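hey
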């Protein structure tokens, strides 16, 4: 009798442990409610400070979360230092920014609750707060991601979309991480804030290949950008991705596309390419006339993107310093 009841107790205990582990493999919005109840507020305060110092930081933080999630899942792998890291991959080199701000946020969170909140979750929260503080929609951020142990430079070079790619290639990269064509369009709306360097769109401005300048670009935008980005000029010069409302999170990005005023080739093809006619063009039009629809879809797609390959349970770790794996 005694043995059997302790055996039942053991089974019950193991069942509870397994249920607990099963629950922990799912992200949840209240993940830190007991272990770090002020985490969300602390991140928000630090993001607000950073944006007050430099408005563009909102865009840079949104992009960091995107570039993190597309490479080995949302595991803060982009934050790891080292010449073999993701920071030195083509899409991030001289481009990804905001790392010092993430350090500051992490330090503030560590002071409140040491060793509890992951760098991957900080990126997800900071991205949401950046959108809200720029005038965009809000959503409940799913939490409980753990930090990865490796960076993947090859993965970043192969998995992140390029502004020179066609719609099919870009869509394939989204599909590879579990997103779909609706997500391609809604998330491209992230380009309603932030800047791009001449080097990322100069291919559209001159007759380098015998087919440019890009005939889908509005003539006045073309001459403006030719002035900004002369051949053999400074490829690091930047301009607004949304030329009509640079730091405001709104649906002007999509209105611009209807007018040939997308800056990147990968932006304008959502409306102007042949491939767009049967895929993305109608959704671009819908977002251009219905900001509420864009905000709603953007929020849903951000939640979806934040769910790409998270490390949970006993996988990964909570990094102390976002730039290095714990020793
Ligand atoms: C669809 C494929 C995408 C391509 C090809 C692409 C490409 C680019 C490029 C080339 C830049 C300029 C980088 C530079 O000049 O250094 C940029 C900036 C940016 N991207 Fe994307 N992007 C894509 C999707 C996204 C997504 C899904 C998001 C987030 C939801 C996003 C958010 C941003 C933001 C906010 C900036 C401005 C960053 C800053 O000012 O620091 N992009 N993107
Ligand atoms: C890096 O990413 C590629 C996908 O592009 C994947 O096949 C590979 O397993 C990843 N490597 C590591 C070490 O995570
Ligand atoms: C994309 O996925 C979302 C759900 O995540 C769904 O609502 C939407 O209809 C999908 N879009 C397409 C074109 O399949
Ligand atoms: C671009 O260059 C090619 C050959 O180099 C030429 O045939 C074509 O007319 C040029 N197009 C424009 C728009 O200047
Ligand atoms: C942009 O600046 C970085 C360093 O600040 C430099 O290494 C790089 O060569 C510059 N790129 C271009 C295209 O001028």
């Amino acid at each position: 009798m005694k043995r059997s009841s302790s055996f039942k107790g053991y089974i019950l205990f193991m069942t509870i442990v397994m249920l607990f582990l099963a629950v922990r493999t799912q992200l949840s919005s209240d993940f830190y409610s007991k272990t770090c109840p002020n985490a969300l507020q602390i991140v928000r305060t630090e993001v607000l400070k950073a944006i007050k110092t430099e408005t563009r930081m909102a865009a840079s933080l949104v992009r960091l979360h995107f570039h993190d999630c597309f490479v080995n899942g949302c595991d803060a792998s982009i934050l790891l230092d080292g010449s073999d890291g993701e920071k030195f991959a083509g899409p991030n080199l001289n481009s990804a920014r905001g790392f010092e701000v993430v350090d500051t946020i992490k330090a503030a969170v560590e002071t409140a609750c040491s060793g509890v909140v992951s760098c991957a979750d900080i990126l997800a929260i900071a991205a949401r707060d950046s959108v809200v503080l720029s005038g965009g929609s809000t959503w409940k951020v799913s939490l409980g991601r753990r930090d990865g142990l490796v960076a993947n430079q090859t993965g970043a070079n192969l998995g992140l979309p390029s502004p020179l790619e066609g719609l099919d290639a870009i869509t394939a990269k989204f599909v590879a991480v579990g997103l779909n064509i609706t997500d391609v369009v809604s998330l491209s709306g992230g380009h309603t804030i932030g800047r791009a360097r001449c080097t990322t769109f100069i291919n559209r401005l001159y007759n380098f290949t015998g087919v440019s300048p890009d005939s889908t670009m509005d003539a006045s935008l073309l001459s403006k950008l030719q002035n900004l980005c002369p051949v053999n000029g400074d490829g690091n010069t930047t301009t607004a991705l949304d030329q009509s409302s640079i730091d405001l999170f709104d649906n002007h990005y999509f209105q611009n596309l209807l007018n040939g005023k997308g800056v990147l080739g990968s932006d304008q093809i959502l409306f102007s390419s042949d491939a767009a006619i049967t895929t993305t063009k109608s959704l671009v039009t819908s977002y251009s006339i219905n900001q509420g629809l864009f905000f709603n879809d953007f929020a849903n797609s951000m939640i979806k993107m934040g769910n790409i390959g998270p490390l949970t349970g006993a996988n990964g770790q909570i990094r102390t310093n976002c730039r290095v794996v714990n020793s």
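Residues 56, 59-60, 62-63, 66, 95, 97, 161-163, 170, 184, 187-188, 190-191, 193-197, 200, 241, 264, 266 surround protoporphyrin IX containing FE (ligand 1) (CB under 6 Å). The chain has 14 helices and two strands.
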